[in-house]
Amino acid sequence: MKENDCIDEVVRVKDVFFQYHGQPVLENIAFVIKKGSFTGLVGPNGSGKSTLIKLILGLLNRRERGEIYLFGTPLEKFKQWSKIGYVSQKANSFNSGFPATVFEVVAMGLYGKMGLFRFLRKGEKEKIDEALNTVGMLPFKKRPIGELSGGQQQRVFIARALVSEPEFLILDEPTVGVDAASVKKFYQLLLKLNQEKNITLLLVTHDIGVMTRYVTDVLCLNKTLHFHGTAQDFETSDLSSVYKHDVQLVTHEHGGFHT
Amino acid sequence: MFELSLSFIERGIVAAMIVGVIAPLVGAMLFVRRSSVVSESLSHVTLTGVSAGVLLAQVMETIPMNPLYIGFGFALVGSLLIEKLRQTFHHFQDLAAPMILSAGIGLSAVLMSISTAGYNEWYDYLFGSIISVSPSDLRFIMITAFIVLLIFYFFQKELIIVSFDEEFAKVSGVSTKGMNFLFSILVALVISMSMKVVGILLVGALISLPVAASLKVARSFRQLLVWSVILGEVAVMSGVYFSYHYSIAPGGMIVVMSVLLLLLFLLLPSLMHRKQEGSS
């Protein structure tokens, strides 16, 4: 344990290659995410962003080559999943026909580490209220999740990830389908989590313009890693202009689908 | 023993009451998992198992064995097979269910015609016959109900999280493979226990109709479970009552009551709305 405490690396990805049906998706990926950072992972559609996240979370495990470490432990041996919170692209994984209240949804964030026999106790209910309060959704506690707007649902899912008090939070395209006003509030919430609660953040997005104003580090991905450095360095790099052009084109095309 | 001291009509009612709780309970979990159809094809595989059990009992008269146990065994194997087929032939998911469904019922008809039991007994399993619930059948129903409740008690949290968001469940460290296996067991248990009460052809109704009606009023998952069980019990009890007084087949009557309840709950909002408009 002592050894792990000294390591201030949350994620270490080393020489990772990944193929899908013989097509290379990721090639020679290597980077480190330091404790306390707020990293933006950007890249056009089909650049392998979600694949990389799924590899880090152990949701995909047919890695061709390379190693991944979480909190200094090899992924294969990593067991402390409550240290990691995950907010996925809402539309893909959430079962919208499920008649659950906001409270019930957030409670699920605790299920993984509760084990057999145990039911929600007072302390756990307070934790749920606290997580809902952090994202500003406490007044909606008893509402069915299906009745909320996209932005509100996204906040509930963040509360679900926060309730187990993670040290590292991964968010995959969380602002897709969320209106512009909510996006700004959303980034301010992330900043609060990063600075006040000292949660390390990894944000996957194709919305490069807004993102660079908030994050500390940028990872630029398109099959291979094109850039890894601070947000300031990224702004002044050639890549920034190239990517901005590319990515915003993609964003624009997508706008039609999501709004 | 409790099940031996009851008259045949009491045994039937107790069996129906137990099934009225368990079937909608499991049905609610299946519904949110969007796999209600699976139970439909599995019920036919269970029928194959029961037919095999009936035949086996005739061949080996010395070993007293309730065909329902063999039915459960077949249901479990079929359940695992469907899960496997769904994963292997990802693009042919819709094919797996009807394939197993028709194979199951065809094989069952063949087995039944080989055995000398005749079609009366087969008919009982097809449409249910609560007056023919034997003490051994009731014991089977009580054991399976107990196992279902145990699984629910221990794994409720895990089953819910897997149904709601499978990816999040994995990231939380919940074994989705293990939970999918538990789901298979639950489905096999509930189908084999419902067989004598509503029968194979009607068990799907008792699993899905009370849940569908509850969805109209439930505001949380807890409420969905409670409403499903209440409506399931109302359907079962009123079905038994009417079938007794008007000598109608109970399995069919239970299903008809479930359909009426569902219609009532579907129409309820618009009826109330009209009333409000009228008064204002």
Automatic annotation (TrEMBL), chain B:
InterPro entries: ABC_BtuC-like, ABC_TroCD. The keyword Membrane applies. It is a multi-pass membrane protein. Pfam families: ABC-3. The keyword Acetylation does not apply. Belongs to the ABC-3 integral membrane protein family. This is Metal ABC transporter permease.
